[in-house]
Automatic annotation (TrEMBL):
Organism, as annotated: Pseudohoeflea coraliihabitans
Sequence ranges assigned to domain EAL in this UniProt record: 24-274
From-to range in the entire protein, with total length: 149 to 437 of 447
Name listed for the protein in its UniProt record: EAL domain-containing protein
């Protein structure tokens, strides 16, 4: 195609690519340095019972602010680490950090962690994950790994093997961003998942677009039939929460309940909830006597 466009077009095109590559390399170097300098951070977003807001778990989300580049979105640096071949070391430092925090939460609060698509094509992933959990001392039954449809489909055989090994030690698997990938529902039967996260694009339209509501209804029915736990992503308004409850979805996350924040905030949220419970119990006891 570029041949037909002539020489000048090619020059512009390749200069753009070169510029992009230079920028990519700059970010790559900064990112590699940040990993070694232990500057990568993990934030935690609460996953709650929609009915009363009680905390079920937290999703770990990677955060990086570079001195020169400023805040860089994980939507940028995760794919870069995947492309340039160091997603393993990035994941290792992030999972280690997340697990260290999760270890100090009450045992019924789970940690949800995003696994990169590249790692589902790597047969050593389950051993690597287990080694990290062992060294930190986090019970695998408290960990949930989020994977995407696209990741599963790129190498279904290895993915199935990795998923089965992870589940064998008690780690749960959640299918992330459900509804946005290109897999067929039929193919999903071949994999053992525990949870399905309904993508934010459906939740954000659920009270305004009938078709979004119908899709969510269908996903919830599928989850019920296949014994998968549904989790709604990106709940921002009380109306969306009410609609989800009406449709039978009890668990979710979103700005309505809390944005991702530092580890300290996760402990504060857990403490506040415990205090609320204690006060409610005291009131109930007081009214009895
Ligand atoms: P994701 O796993 O689907 O994570 C949910 C994203 O939606 C997060 O963006 C979160 O901050 C955002 N979000 C949550 N609730 C709301 C809401 O109510 N409204 C809106 N507008 N957004 C909401 P974030 O942190 O920028 O992460 C983007 C993506 O980057 C993640 O999507 C995930 O695919 C990837 N990612 C983040 N951290 C990691 C990580 O540690 N490892 C890997 N492999 N991927 C990660
Ligand atoms: Mg996720
Ligand atoms: Mg998601
Ligand atoms: Mg999403």
């Amino acid at each position: 195609r570029s041949k037909r466009r002539g020489r000048s077009q090619i020059t512009v095109y390749s200069e753009e690519i070169a510029e992009e590559m230079r920028f990519g390399t700059e970010v790559e170097q900064a990112l590699r340095r940040a990993i070694i300098a232990d500057e990568m951070a993990v934030h935690f977003q609460p996953i709650v019972c929609i009915r009363d807001g009680t905390i079920r778990g937290f999703e770990a989300l990677a955060r990086w602010t570079d001195r020169e580049l400023g805040f860089v979105s994980p939507g940028v640096f995760i794919p870069l680490a995947e492309e340039r071949g160091f997603i393993d070391s990035l994941t290792e430092t992030l999972l280690r950090k997340a697990a260290r925090t999760a270890k100090d939460w009450p045992a019924n609060v789970f940690l949800s962690f995003n696994l990169s698509s590249v790692q589902l094509t790597d047969p050593t992933t389950s051993l690597n994950v287990l080694a990290i959990l062992n060294s930190v001392g986090l019970d695998p039954r408290r960990l949930e790994l989020e994977i995407t449809e696209t990741a599963v489909m790129s190498d279904p055989e290895t993915a199935a093997k990795v998923i089965n090994e992870l589940r064998a030690v008690g780690i749960r698997i959640a299918l992330d961003d459900f509804g946005t990938g290109q897999s067929s529902l039929g193919r999903l039967r071949d994999f053992a998942f525990d949870k399905v996260k309904i993508d934010r694009s459906f939740i954000s339209e659920i009270t305004v677009d009938r078709s979004a509501e119908h899709i969510v209804r269908a996903v919830l029915a599928m989850c019920e039939g296949l014994h998968l736990m549904p989790i709604a992503e990106g709940i921002e308004t009380p109306e969306q929460a009410a609609k989800l409850l009406e449709l039978g979805c009890d668990v979710g996350q979103g700005y309505l309940f809390g944005k991702a924040a530092g580890a300290d905030r996760s402990f504060a949220m857990i403490r506040e909830e415990q205090d609320r419970l204690i006060r409610a119990r005291e009131r109930a006891n007081g009214s009895e006597s």
